[in-house]
Write a structure and sequence with these properties.
Blueprint: E1 35-41, H1 48-57, H2 63-76, E2 78-85, H3 86-102, E3 108-113
Antiparallel strand pairs: 1-2, 1-3
Helix pairs in contact: 1-2
Length: 114
């Protein structure tokens, strides 16, 4: 039996080409995501100390800012406690409500586009 030829086979075709022509320009339209306000609502059952704790722990406000926001919520019925991109605003709102419910408080927040 004859010996096998293990050399690579090169196939050339006059029909195969790797040239690519692009007739259209790609237009890149980038829009920045909108900001959303997290609004804390006043209620008659959630203690001010709890509200201040949530503002400091979840929203990372200082003692002075947390106190001022708590008073604004109490006096005005609500206050913007932070402005974030949607996913972060939603997550902080969920964290605050969940923690409040775990401790038996009816604290509510809402997220609105700025």
């Amino acid at each position: 039996m004859g010996e096998r030829d293990n050399s690579p086979i090169l196939i050339r075709s006059k029909y195969m080409t790797t040239d690519v022509d692009i007739d259209e320009k790609i237009i890149l339209d980038v829009t920045k995501p909108n900001n959303f306000n997290v609004i804390m609502l006043n209620d008659d059952a959630t203690p001010m100390e709890w509200v201040m704790g949530v503002l400091k722990e979840i929203f990372k406000h200082s003692d002075g800012i947390a106190e001022a926001l708590t008073m604004a919520i109490h006096n005005d019925g609500s206050a913007v406690v932070g402005t974030y991109k949607y996913e972060i605003a939603e997550q902080k709102s969920i964290e605050a409500v969940s923690a409040s419910r775990e401790h038996g408080f009816p604290l509510n927040l809402k997220v609105e586009e700025e």
